[in-house]
Amino acid sequence: MVWWTTLIGSVDRARRTTLTFGFATAIGIATVGPAPAEGLTDALVKAYQSNPQLTAERARQRATDENVPQALAGYRPQLVASLGVGLQQVRNLLPGNTFQSDTLKPWTIGVTVTQTLFNGFRTANSVRVAELQVKSGREALRNVGQGVLLDAVTAYTNVLANQALVAAQKANVDFLTQTLDITKKRLDAGDVTPTDTAQAEARLSRGRADLNAAEVNLAISQATYAEVVGNPPGKLSAAAPIDRLLPRSREDAIGIAMKGNPAVLAASYDVDVATTTIRVAEGALLPSVTLQGSASRSRQADSTLGTLGTDQASLIGQINAPIYDGGTAAAQTRQSKELAAQSRSVLDQIRNQSRTAAIGAWVSNEGAKIAVSAAESEVRAAEIALQGVGREAQGGQRTTVDVLNSQQDLIQARARLIGAQRDRVVASYTLLSAIGRLDVQTLGLNTPDYLPEVHYHQVRDAWHGLRTPSGQ
User: Fold this and answer.
1) pLDDT value of residue 35
2) What's the family (predicted)?
3) Is a pLDDT exceeding 60 seen at residue 43?
C-alpha cells in the first residue's frame, strides 16, 4: 500500500535524525558541524574557575588560614604606646593664710612591652588547633570542588539528553502528523472509519504535549547549566563515561573511599581539632608567666613653681596562678570533652555514609551499563516491531491504532535509551566523586589547580599588614 510506504519512509528519516542528534551525542560520538562545539572538559574548566559556590569556599578557606597567625601571635610580644595630655588647676595654701593658684599642663608619654613566657601551653595548643582547622578546611574545599564538578557533569549531560529527547519528540510529532494526514485521506477513500482518524488525532495531541514537556525540561536544564558553568550552553559535543579512571571492584572502591574521600578526611581532622581544644581549655587552670617592660616620661609645666618631671623605666616579671574562677575553666573543659565525643561520632557517621555512597555509586555504575545494553536491545526490537506491524497493516492484518501503538513503544524505548546513556555518564563521574578522585589532576583538565597551600604560606608568619595577598 502506498500510504504505508510513504509513512515508513518518514519513520526511517525520523529514526536517522534522532540517532544523529540524540544518541550520538549521548553516547559520545562527536557530531560534525560548522561551529566549534563545547566539550564536557570545557564546561568543567569553566565551572572550576568561576563557579560562585566554589569561589566562596576558597574565600572561606583563606579566612580559615588566618587562624594560624592569630594563634601564633601568642608567642609574640605585645607593644603598646601611650600619650596623656591634660590641664590641672592647683591652689596651694601658703604660710600667712595666703593662696597660690596656677594651672598645670601635665603630659605623659610611655611605652610598654609585654611578653608571655608561659600560659599553660595554650598558645602551642591553639596553634595546633588552627593548623588542624586549616587541614580540615582544605578537605572541605576539596569536597565542594568535587560537588561542583559533579554538578557540572550532571548539568551538561542533562542538556544533551533533553536535546536528544526534544529531537525524538519532534520526529514523533512529524510521524504522527503524517499518520493523521494519511488516515484522513484513507477515510475519504473509505478505507478506514472515523474512529481511526480520532485515534490518530488523539495520538498527535499526546505527541505535541510530550514535545512541549521535553522543551520545558530542556529550558530548565539549560538554565541550570548556566548557573553551574557560568554561561548558557551552546552547541555541546559528546560526553562519555570515564571507566579508565574507576576502581576495578566494589572492594577497591570502598577501600579508596575510606582513605581518600574528603568528607572522611575533614571529619578526621575535626576529631583532632576537638581533642586538642580540650588541652587549650585545661591550660586555663595552669599558672601563667609574663614579663613586662615599660618606660615613661612625665612633665608638669608651671610658670610659677617651675617644671617638674619624672623619667621612669621598669622590668617586671609576674606569675599568676588561678585558684578559683567560678568554675568557668572546668565547665569549658567538660564542654570540650563532650564536643570531642560528638566529633568522633560524626566521624563514624561520615565513614558509614561514605562507605554506603561508594557501594551505591559502584552498583549504580554497573547497573547503568546493563541499562544501556537493555535499552539498545529494546530500541532495535521496537524498530523491528514497527516495521512488522506496518507490513501487516499493509496486508490488512493490523489497524491504524496498532501502528500508533507500535510507534509509541518505539519513542518510549528511545527515550529510555537516551536516559540510560545519560545515567551511564553521570554514574561514572559519581563513582569517581565517591572515592574522592573527582579533581582537576585526575581528570587532566586544562586549567591550573587551585592550591590553598599558597595563601597559607603567604600569611602564616605575617607579623603585620592589613592587605590580603591578593591586594584587598
Assistant:
1) 57
2) Belongs to the outer membrane factor (OMF) (TC 1.B.17) family.
3) yes
Q: Is residue 271 located within the same domain as residue 336?
A: yes
Number of domains into which the chain is organized: 2
Name residue, grid cell 569517581: 432
DSSP-derived secondary structure letter, 447 = S
Which region, left, alpha or beta, applies to residue 121 given φ > 0 means left and ψ of -120 to 50 means alpha?
Answer: left
Same domain? For 223 and 292 the reply is no
- 6-24 residues labelled b (16+ CB within 10 A) or e (exposed): ebbebbeebbeebbebbbe
Distance (Å, whole) CA 6 – CA 178: 9
Q: What is the predicted pLDDT for the residue at 33? A: 47
Asked if residue 9 lies in contact with residue 151, where contact means CB atoms within 8 angstroms, the answer is: no
List, in order, residues 6 or more apart from 141 with CB less than 8 Å away: 57, 58, 60, 61, 452
Averaged pLDDT for residues 22-42? 57
What is the pTM for the complete model shown? 0.86
The three three-digit cell numbers of residue 165, written as one number: 529527547
Strand intervals (E) in 15-77: none
- Give me the pLDDT at residue 15, please: 53
Of 321, 339, 258, give the one whose Cα is nearest residue 285: 321
CA distance to 64, 238, 418, per residue, from 424 (Å): 38, 13, 10
459 close to 130: Cβ distance less than 8 angstroms: no
* 64 CB burial (10 A radius; 0-12, 13-18, 19+): buried
Q: What CATH number is given to the structural domain containing 83?
A: 2.20.200
Q: Which domain holds residue 138?
A: 2-76+121-285+328-459
